User: Which sequence fits this backbone?
């Protein structure tokens, strides 16, 4: 049968953000896929070099509107490590609280989107209605629904009062009931399960080989979570489980995220009940001593990495962001292969893509000639395969 | 007669297209939020459409990146007349924090004409709804 290539995006009903996918199909079956990035590339890393460390917090926050707290936390952790700051316990607890609330909002949002892509719009409306409860809690704590701006270098900017604690516990109680209902619905409702099980298979070995991260990886039965593997903030004091599933498909990804919701409720309750007294921040120096560091953070979508290099001034010399979605792209291509065209939105949504996070240009510099190229995915693949072939010759 | 009818229809049920030109996602989520049960803009007849060819109002979010510039113009041209543009968020107005980055051209109004600006980073869903309702008032007054 003849192969046809169909472009999808950048503006497409199935995609909420601009990205371009090129599918090579044979009949109904996808044979190859290619992801083109760059529509959302804003040049944040370069811009960060011209802003001070404090200004950069707000820039990092605006890398992504869903996991804004992840990026700021990852960034301030790196800067704190460079300055050698010991952040007060209460500050870390509040940071953790916000990051778990963010995970809840992100997972609820995702659950809705996945249900919508599977054609289950009532679940979409339900989860988004309940998500408003978390948004309200975040607004109570930080004063804004989306960009919380709670982090600062050396701690957090706002304290939590007793009334707020009560409100949060009430909200969590309500959400727990709702989530139990979703667990029931998402894993037993026959039409929904039939639509998502077996779609977008990613076997365990492949997931490890292609360096998938976050819930995508955990749904392939790999128990990897930065919060457990390399605890930051106060995660080493908090009891929680890493959730996995062994079905390796979209169903597994739903199960993992719903389980993680329940874990997050536990963490939030633990944090509220064990909130230590004391300061919420310490004063940070304006200039950061020379050095470089890497900071890791388990964002709702997976491992987030920030690299900061400082040259002793008040502006970073280099800032590198590796967002989880980017790490999941190679795995997505694997999942799409041999799937059906109708499954594209579902599979793509299942990694919870955050395109604005992933928009870093890949620059390949040829060591021998010093020539640099900005490459697309297909070119990288081609180059990689050519070199591999040459090796075997 | 036909004109009157279309104007009436447009006022009662404007169809919107959501166009992300490089936003950080927060504005987009707030727009989708406005469609979900708590805010529910469908009660005003506002419907989200997938293609520019069906839309009356383009709701833009985000600063214009170099790569999306031509595409914005193309989408604008594909939208049937009369069309209206709402710029949602500080980015769509002026570029917000990204101002000065090498890949950012600026606000949406650098590329296509804008009718209503909704400030905020991101604006609350209520603010977005307010913006669109104000746009409807503007339409009503314009003959
Ligand atoms: S205005 Fe703010 S929230 Fe909206 S896209 Fe820009 S940075 Fe994001």
Assistant:
């Amino acid at each position: 049968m003849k192969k046809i290539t169909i472009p999808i995006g950048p503006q497409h009903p199935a995609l909420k953000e601009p990205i371009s996918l090129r599918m090579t199909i044979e009949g109904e079956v996808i044979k190859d896929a290619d992801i083109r990035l760059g529509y959302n590339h804003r040049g944040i890393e370069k811009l960060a070099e011209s802003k001070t460390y404090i200004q950069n917090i707000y820039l990092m926050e605006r890398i992504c509107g869903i996991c804004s707290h992840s990026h700021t936390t990852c960034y301030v952790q790196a800067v704190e490590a460079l300055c050698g700051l010991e952040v007060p316990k209460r500050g870390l607890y509040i940071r953790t609280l916000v990051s778990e609330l963010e995970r809840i909002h992100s997972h609820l949002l995702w659950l809705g989107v996945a249900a919508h892509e599977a054609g289950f719009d009532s679940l979409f409306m339900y989860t988004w209605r309940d998500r408003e409860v978390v948004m309200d809690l975040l607004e109570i704590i930080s004063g804004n629904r989306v960009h919380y701006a709670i982090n600062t270098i050396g701690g957090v900017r706002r304290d939590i009062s007793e009334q707020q604690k009560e409100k949060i516990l009430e909200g969590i109680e309500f959400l727990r009931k709702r989530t139990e209902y979703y667990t029931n619905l998402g894993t037993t409702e026959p039409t929904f399960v039939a639509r998502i099980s077996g779609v977008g298979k990613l076997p365990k070995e492949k997931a490890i080989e292609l360096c998938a991260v976050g819930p995508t990886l955990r749904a392939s039965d790999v128990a990897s979570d930065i919060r457990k593997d390399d605890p930051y903030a106060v995660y080493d004091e908090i009891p929680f489980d890493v959730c996995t599933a062994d079905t390796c498909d979209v169903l597994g990804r739903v199960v993992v995220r719903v389980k993680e919701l329940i874990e997050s409720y536990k963490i939030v309750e633990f944090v509220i009940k064990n909130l230590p007294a004391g300061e919420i921040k310490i004063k940070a120096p304006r200039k950061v001593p020379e050095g470089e560091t890497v900071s890791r953070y388990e964002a709702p979508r997976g491992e987030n990495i920030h690299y900061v290099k400082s040259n002793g001034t008040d502006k970073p010399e280099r800032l590198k962001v590796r967002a989880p979605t980017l790490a999941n792209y190679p795995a997505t291509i694997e999942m799409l292969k041999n799937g059906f065209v109708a499954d594209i939105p579902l599979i793509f949504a299942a990694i919870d893509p955050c395109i604005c996070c992933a928009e870093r240009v890949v620059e390949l510099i040829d060591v021998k000639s010093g020539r640099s190229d900005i490459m697309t995915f297909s070119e990288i693949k081609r180059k990689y395969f050519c070199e591999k072939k040459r090796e075997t010759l | 007669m036909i004109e009157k009818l279309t104007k009436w229809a447009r006022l009662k049920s404007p169809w919107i297209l959501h166009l992300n030109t490089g936003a950080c996602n927060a504005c987009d989520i707030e727009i989708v939020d406005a469609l979900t049960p708590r805010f529910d803009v469908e009660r005003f007849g506002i419907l989200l459409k997938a293609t520019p060819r069906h839309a009356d109002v383009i709701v833009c979010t985000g600063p214009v990146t170099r790569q999306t510039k031509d595409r914005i113009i193309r989408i604008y041209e594909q939208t049937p007349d009369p069309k209206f543009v709402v710029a949602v968020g500080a980015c769509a107005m002026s570029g917000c924090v990204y101002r000065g980055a090498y890949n950012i051209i600026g606000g949406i109004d650098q590329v296509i004409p804008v009718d209503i600006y909704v400030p905020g980073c991101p604006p609350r869903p209520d603010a977005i709804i307010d913006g669109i309702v104000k746009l409807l008032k503007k339409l009503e007054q314009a003959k």
Remarks:
- The first strand of chain A starts at residue 3 and ends at 8.
- The beta strands of chain A are 3-8, 20-26, 29-36, 151-152, 155-156, 291-299, 302-310, 316-322, 363-365, 372-374.
